[in-house]
Amino acid sequence: MKVNDLSYLSYPFDSAHLLKKRKSIKRGLLAGGTAWLEKRIAVLGGSTTHDIIEMLDLFLLSHGIRAEFYESEYAQYWNDVMFGNPELAEFKPDIIFIHTSARNITAFPTVRDSAEAVDALLHEQFAHFEAMWRKAAQTYQCPIIQNDFEMPFYRLLGNRDAWDFRGRVNFVSRLNQKFSEYAQSHENFYINDINYMASCYGLQRWADPACWHLYKYALAVDAIPEFAHNLANIIKSIFGRNKKAIACDLDNTLWGGIVGDDGAENIEIGQETSAGQLYSEFQTYIKAHRDLGVLLTVNSKNDEENALTGLKRPDSVLKSDDFIIIKANWNPKDRNLAETARELNIGADSMVFIDDNPAEREIVRASVAGCAVPEMTAPERYITTLDRSGFFEVTQFSADDLARNEMYQTNAERARQEASFSDYGEYLKSLEMKAEIKPFAPLYMSRIAQLTNKSNQFNLTTLRCTQADIERVAADGNCITLYGRLADKFGDNGVVSVVFGHRDETDGTLLHVDLWLMSCRVLKRDMEYAMMDCLVAECRVRGISRIRGCYYPTAKNKMVKDFYALHGFAKTSEDADGNATWEREIDGYENKNNVIEVNV
After folding, report:
1. What is the distance between the alpha carbons of residues 56 and 78, in angstroms, rounded to a whole number?
2. Has residue 225 got a pLDDT over 60?
3. Which of 346, 147, 357, 145 lies closest to 236, judged by CA?
4. Residues 333-354, buried b or exposed e (16+ Cβ, 10 A)?
5. Which of 144, 148, 133 lies closest to 193 in space, CA to CA?
6. Where does residue 56 fall: left (phi above 0), alpha (psi -120 to 50 degrees), or beta otherwise?
């Protein structure tokens, strides 16, 4: 395997090859020189988990996450949590994954049971897990991932098993529903949907009794890579490693045919032909990603006029307004993609390139480091390939996600207005900006955690936080927390800045800034000055007279290297790697924001 070659780990993958070559693939990944995100993951199993951990390790490495694992003894998942385990406590997990299956349901209904007896049994089985989740959340205060249950591999009642209250299929379905209801009502709790995975894989193959009785595997060995891939998607999403944007080809990707040769009237789209229906369904799938906050762009070798005629067809699901950026030209696609990333102010490694042409895919794969390039082999497989790849796995979802595309479009309007001003200060005043800067609030906990894992350019310490981390900070009376929302005459940007710090344990007059970040959407809008003004004001209220902050350099945050110097801080130390500490007295600080109206 070539260093950093992720093709073996891209869906669809060869499970047998991964299982056989896992060690050499891992060596190749570790040799890539990636700036790893280090995390500790506790795997608590109701069955054998060793191979699952080895496969999960590979997929997480492919997402830039280097994990250390704690593995429970066989079938000790419940005891490790409920009765305490010093080794697990010392491990201090960042995530707990509970790997159980239908094999861990201890009792099923019988045909002799009454409806009341089955209800009591259902409550008993659910309570077993609920007690464990509550204890784990209280003890370890970290995200919990729990498998739901695959369907039983036999049906004693035949088809009646699905709807009769005494049927095993019905019982498992009801238990899965209770798991779902718990997830909906509890933050930092996620379901690993093995019920869906087993259905896709084929239940008879997935739930191979031989694997259970020989090795105590709750799933077939060949299914382990797919299982680990799905689980890794949840974990990388929790830690902010999702992709952010799609760069999509047009001809033979969003429609059948070549619009420049065939004419817009002759391309395959719409309900008139089976091929047209396939492409329409794919467009519907792509368009639905806008509501997830995924940015849609076009990257096509085409005359722009021809490209737009294809999108103007009345039966085209996607319209030109659905795309933030349309690059339809004859430039190399890797160059277009890099330019799109710069214009969106995101890394090219945050993008997914969708193209039916294998030559174009190979060029982008070789030229644009970190960009995801799925194998788009046939229109009928397009949706499955993207969907199972998990590029945009949803673990946190906020109102800002729903409005993200509109926010980027209004940013383009701001850029056009900026071009009409010769004085930048006057341009900022013309935006009529208003900010809400307040302590962390429950309404925004999800968005705040999301920002800590997404913001890379304006991020002074690159601290990554789960929602549980943010909630702990908010509840700590020794911490100062601030979120910042920013709106202007073009629209609301949502929560765009986060700051928190803690009072020194021995010197109560000193505040340590633990995190300071801002979304790239509002760079150079003076929001950082408004946040600093509010932080200083809060320090004064609490009797804090000195602020200390750190800058930890990364490949992406060089733009904030001199952030503290611009705010009158003095550098007190710096090591050979550029990690610097800055400090200033609050006395003499004067507010620097004069363009944003702030509501505190």
Report:
1. 22
2. yes
3. 145
4. bbebbbebbebbebbbbbbbbb
5. 148
6. alpha
- pLDDT tens profile 412-459: 777 777 777 888 888 899 999 999 999 999 989 988 998 888 777 889
Report whether pLDDT(336) > 50.
yes
- As a whole number, the mean pLDDT across the chain is 92
Inter-residue contact 545 to 367 (CB < 8 Å):
no
Compute the distance between CA of residue 389 and CA of residue 242 in angstroms, rounded to an integer: 11
Helix-then-strand count for the chain, H and E: 23, 18
Strands 351-354 and 434-438: unpaired
Match 């710069």 to its residue by tokens.
Answer: 342
Token representation of residue 595 = 């363009």
Cβ atoms 169, 121 nearer than 8 A? no
Burial class (CB in 10 A: 0-12, 13-18, 19+), 372: buried
Q: Which residue has the tokens 């004001």?
A: 537
Please answer whether residues 322 and 284 qualify as being in contact, where contact means their C-beta atoms are separated by less than 8 angstroms: no
- For the beta sheet containing 295-301, the strands, ordered from the edge strand earlier in sequence to the opposite edge, are 325-329, 295-301, 245-248, 351-354
Residue 104: which of 56, 60, 72 has the closest Cα? Answer: 72
Whole-number Å distance between alpha carbons of 38 and 61: 10
Q: Are 521 and 496 in contact (CB under 8 A)?
A: yes
Tokens 């601290």 correspond to what residue?
A: 463
Q: What is the DSSP string of 270-332?
A: SSSSHHHHHHHHHHHHHHHGGGGTPEEEEEEES-HHHHHHHHHSTT-SS-GGG-SEEEEESS-
pLDDT value at 296 more than 60: yes
d(CA 516, CA 461): 7
Residues 140, 224, 71, 463, Cα dihedral to 10°: -40
d(CA 4, CA 104): 38
Q: Quick one: tokens of 125?
A: 């089985």
pLDDT tens for residues 504-517? 999 999 999 999 99
CA distance 438 to 537: 12
State the Cα–Cα distance between residues 155 and 151, nearest whole angstrom.
9
Predicted TM-score (pTM) of this structure: 0.81
Residue with tokens 């949590």: 81
Nearest Cα residue to 151 out of 190, 196, 181, 212:
196
Query: Between the CA of residue 103 and those of 78, 100, 144, 266, 564, what are the distances in Å?
Result: 14, 8, 20, 54, 56
267-275 contacts at long range (C-beta below 8 A, 24 or more positions apart): 267/310, 267/313, 269/310, 269/313, 269/315, 269/316, 270/313, 270/315, 270/316, 271/315, 275/379
pLDDT digits (tens, 9 = 90+) for 373-391: 999 999 999 999 999 999 9
Instruction: Report residue 422 as tokens.
Output: 């010769």
Which two three-digit tokens encode residue 548? Answer: 């200390």
